[in-house]
């Protein structure tokens, strides 16, 4: 298996050579040797844009370059870069470039460009990222679930937590936030507690069982949860030689609010 930086660059190269074809998250993730679920979260954390946004920006950049040469019809360029109709292409094009596709064919048209990403590993301050590898027996959680899209989940999940905590009907306390992959694009997020086998599962709740295995556990404070998550992808994963990500799920473990303590749990496998 290549190192993490090389495999991620391989995924970017795959995107660049398939921009005029259907690009499925699972096909891109395969080049990085992780699941589509993990890849999209890593990509967003490292690159600052979602996988879908990156593909759209690159396609609209190349579409503008073709139109500016004045040799292609708008409808042909729209179809080439995955748009079903001239209208949908025109809306996306104008939002990105500030002009309609027809204007891009004129001399001197001002257009925007989104360059291909290149992955470079840079050394930064020697700050510590605390973690531990923990073996856990199989366990089950029970909670309230909602489906989220990888494209918008960073904004929507915190809002859902606020909504849930403010509601009167709370069948679980919220010991865990659980991400469960569905199809590479959508995932099920549970606000959950550990399941007690002697208790009934309340109406509207669902259970999820995790197999016995090893987990990389990263402690942090609530305010630094997303920062810690990003550092896992940027600092820990590239330097980790003994483990790779496993499964298509991860968990957040929350202590009572007064303790201000959170743990990020990632399933791992020995390389």
Please render the helix and strand layout as text:
Layout (H helix, E strand, L loop, with lengths): L3 H14 L7 H7 L4 H12 L3 H18 L5 H7 L5 H12 L3 H4 L27 E5 L2 E11 L3 H14 L9 E6 L4 E9 L11 E5 L2 E8 L4 H15 L3 E3 L3 E6 L7 E9 L1
Antiparallel strand pairs: 1-6, 2-4, 2-5, 3-4, 3-8, 6-9, 7-9, 8-9
Helix pairs in contact: 1-2, 2-3
Q: Quick gist of this model?
A:
This protein has 271 residues and is α+β, with helices and mostly antiparallel strands. Helix content is 38%, strand content 23%.
Oligomer category: single chain
Please count the beta strands (DSSP E, at least 2 residues each).
Answer: 9
In which range does the helix fraction lie? 25-40%
Total count of helical runs of at least 4 residues: 9
Radius of gyration (Å) = 22 Å
Secondary structure category: alpha+beta
β-sheet strand percentage = 15-25%
- The CATH class label of the largest domain is Alpha Beta
CATH superfamily of the largest domain: Regulatory factor, effector binding domain
- End-to-end Cα distance, whole Å, is 9 Å
Named CATH topology of the largest domain: Multidrug-efflux Transporter 1 Regulator Bmrr, Chain A
- Give the count of structural domains: 2
Q: What series of H and E elements makes up the topology? A: HHHHHHHEEHEEEEHEEE
List keywords for this structure.
Arc Repressor Mutant, subunit A; alpha+beta; single chain; 9 helices; 2 domains; 9-stranded antiparallel sheet; 271 residues; elongated; Multidrug-efflux Transporter 1 Regulator Bmrr, Chain A
Describe the structure.
- The chain has 271 residues and is α+β, with helices and mostly antiparallel strands.
- The chain folds into two domains: 4-104, Arc Repressor Mutant, subunit A, CATH 1.10.10.60; 132-270, Regulatory factor, effector binding domain (Multidrug-efflux Transporter 1 Regulator Bmrr, Chain A).
- The protein contains nine helices and nine strands.
- It has helices spanning 4-17, 25-31, 36-47, 51-68, 74-80, 86-97, 101-104, 153-166, 225-239; strands at 132-136, 139-149, 176-181, 186-194, 206-210, 213-220, 243-245, 249-254, 262-270.
- Strands 1, 2, 3, 4, 5, 6, 7, 8 and 9 form a nine-stranded antiparallel sheet that branches.
- A hairpin with a 7-residue loop joins strand 8 (249-254) and strand 9.
- The longest helix has 18 residues, at 51-68.
- The protein is elongated and about 70 Å long.
- The chain starts with a helix and ends with a strand.
- The model has no long low-confidence stretch (mean pLDDT 90).
């Amino acid at each position: 298996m290549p190192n993490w930086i090389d495999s991620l660059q391989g995924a970017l190269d795959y995107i660049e050579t398939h921009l005029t074809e259907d690009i499925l998250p699972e096909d891109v993730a395969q080049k990085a040797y992780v699941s589509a679920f993990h890849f999209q979260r890593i990509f967003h954390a490292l690159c600052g844009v979602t996988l879908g946004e990156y593909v759209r920006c690159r396609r609209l950049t190349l579409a503008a370059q073709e139109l500016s040469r004045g040799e292609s019809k708008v409808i042909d360029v729209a179809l080439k870069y995955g748009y079903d109709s001239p209208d949908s292409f025109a809306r996306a094009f104008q939002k990105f470039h500030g002009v309609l596709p027809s204007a891009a064919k004129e001399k001197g048209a001002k257009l925007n460009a989104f360059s291909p990403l290149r992955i470079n590993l840079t050394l930064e301050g020697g700050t510590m990222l605390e973690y531990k590898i923990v073996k856990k027996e199989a366990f089950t959680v029970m909670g309230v679930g909602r489906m989220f899209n990888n494209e918008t989940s960073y904004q929507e999940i915190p809002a859902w937590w606020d909504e849930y905590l403010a509601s009167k009907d709370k069948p679980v306390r919220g010991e865990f936030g659980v991400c469960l992959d569905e199809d590479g694009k959508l995932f099920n997020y549970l606000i959950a507690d550990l399941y007690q086998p002697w208790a009934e599962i309340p109406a509207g709740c669902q259970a999820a069982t995790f197999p016995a295995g090893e987990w990389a556990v990263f402690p942090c404070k609530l305010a630094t949860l997303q920062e810690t998550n990003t550092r896992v992808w940027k600092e820990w994963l590239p330097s980790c030689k003994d483990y790779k990500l496993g499964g298509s799920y991860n968990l957040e473990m929350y202590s009572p609010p007064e303790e201000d303590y959170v743990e990020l749990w990632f399933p791992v496998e020995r390389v």
